[in-house]
């Protein structure tokens, strides 16, 4: 965005009836021109991300087309998708037709169960012990996920995912309560100064107690449209990926040798731990994508985001869920 596009003068076309609304509030009528005033919660956010968060239901290509067609303006000036909005900027959005969807109905019981799973909270960060089987956000046929449910039940205008974990993975999920916390913690993730620790039950018993899996990963899509990941060293689109593992316990389930493993991803690729462990012959129990011939009788993905080491914070942990603990030998000493 050019320098003069970031000035904070109210557009001259405004009158008493067209004052901008706060961008923290939901748009009530998409069929008219809307003017949104950027708040501290959106300060320095890319314009395309700002719009995606406020035009839910509108395909991303349509948003980019609106920007190119001058249907989106910032402070009455043309803009680009990568421009960053600043506090007090006024974003003009032309009338648009969105796919209508009623707000999800969140049951009281579910709401209480989520709130009871908050394991850490301060003025900028909330960490939730997410249950297995619930997506972190809505989409792909899902009315809502954890983030939509948390916004609904807490009544907070600003809650954003700092990162994601798979739907069937349980454990620690970081949610920001302030834009500043989101930017800081996401930068920590980029800089790899946050260490995530996962616990899983995997088939077989690795010969080594500790090892690093260093295998590049490639994302691809099945004919059904479902995402998959595989180890692929030859493709230029593969991404460098490393996972450290520690074996804490070797035991048997249904007559089959298995292990309790701690996995520490050094990179943050989709399905990284699941694919890396399957690659070395120790696929995670209950993994319907990467352990299709699982004969253990386990009916959930045995992968749990157990511990977070974040600079400036005390270590945050979430206990192993009962449905995983029940498979462990009684004498098992869980890592601290």
From TrEMBL:
Record carries keyword Transmembrane helix = no
Q: Which portions of the sequence form the region Disordered?
A: 1-23
In terms of PROSITE patterns, this protein maps to:
PSI_RLU, S4
SUPFAM superfamilies per the UniProt record, alphabetical: Alpha-L RNA-binding motif, Pseudouridine synthase
Protein keywords: Isomerase, RNA-binding, rRNA processing
Write down the superkingdom of origin.
Answer: Bacteria
**EC number(s) recorded for this UniProt protein:** 5.4.99.-
Q: Which reaction does it catalyse?
A: a uridine in RNA = a pseudouridine in RNA; uridine(955/2504/2580) in 23S rRNA = pseudouridine(955/2504/2580) in 23S rRNA
Which InterPro entries does this one have? PsdUridine_synth_cat_dom_sf, PsdUridine_synth_RluA-like_CS, PsdUridine_synth_RluC/D, PsdUridine_synth_RsuA/RluA, RluA_PseudoU_synthase, S4_RNA-bd, S4_RNA-bd_sf
**Could you say which enzyme class this protein belongs to?**
isomerase
Location of the RNA-binding S4 domain: 45-102
Q: Which family does it belong to?
A: Belongs to the pseudouridine synthase RluA family.
What is this protein's function per UniProt?
Answer: Responsible for synthesis of pseudouridine from uracil at positions 955, 2504 and 2580 in 23S ribosomal RNA.
What name does UniProt use for this protein? Pseudouridine synthase
State which gene encodes it.
rluC
């Amino acid at each position: 965005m050019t320098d003069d596009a970031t000035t904070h003068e109210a557009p001259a076309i405004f009158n008493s009836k067209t004052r901008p609304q706060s961008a923290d509030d939901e748009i009530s009528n998409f069929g008219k021109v809307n003017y949104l005033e950027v708040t501290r919660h959106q300060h320095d956010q890319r314009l395309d991300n700002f719009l995606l968060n406020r035009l839910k239901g509108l395909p991303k290509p349509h948003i980019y087309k609106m920007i190119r067609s001058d249907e989106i303006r910032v402070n009455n000036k043309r803009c680009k998708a990568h421009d960053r909005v600043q506090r007090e900027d006024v974003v003009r959005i032309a009338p648009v037709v969105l796919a209508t969807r009623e707000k999800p109905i969140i049951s009281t019981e579910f709401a209480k169960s989520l709130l009871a799973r908050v394991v850490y909270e301060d003025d900028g960060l909330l960490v939730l012990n997410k249950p297995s089987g619930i997506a972190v956000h809505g989409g792909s046929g899902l009315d809502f996920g954890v983030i939509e449910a948390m916004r609904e039940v807490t009544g907070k205008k600003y809650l954003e995912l700092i990162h994601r974990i798979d739907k069937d993975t349980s454990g620690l999920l970081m949610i920001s309560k302030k834009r500043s916390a989101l930017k800081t913690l996401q930068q920590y993730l980029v800089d790899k100064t946050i260490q995530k620790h996962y616990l899983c039950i995997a088939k077989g018993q690795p010969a080594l107690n500790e090892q690093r899996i260093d295998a590049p990963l490639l994302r691809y899509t099945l004919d059904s449209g479902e995402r998959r990941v595989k180890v692929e060293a030859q493709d230029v689109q593969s991404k460098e990926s490393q996972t450290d593992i520690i074996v804490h316990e070797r035991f048997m389930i249904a007559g089959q040798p298995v292990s309790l493993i701690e996995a520490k991803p050094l990179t943050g690729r989709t399905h990284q731990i699941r694919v890396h462990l399957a690659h070395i012959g120790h696929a995670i129990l209950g993994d319907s994508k990467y352990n299709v011939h699982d004969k253990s009788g386990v009916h959930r993905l045995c992968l749990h985001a157990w511990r977070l080491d974040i600079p400036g914070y005390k270590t945050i942990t979430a206990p192993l869920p009962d449905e995983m603990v029940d498979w462990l030998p009684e004498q098992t000493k869980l890592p601290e």
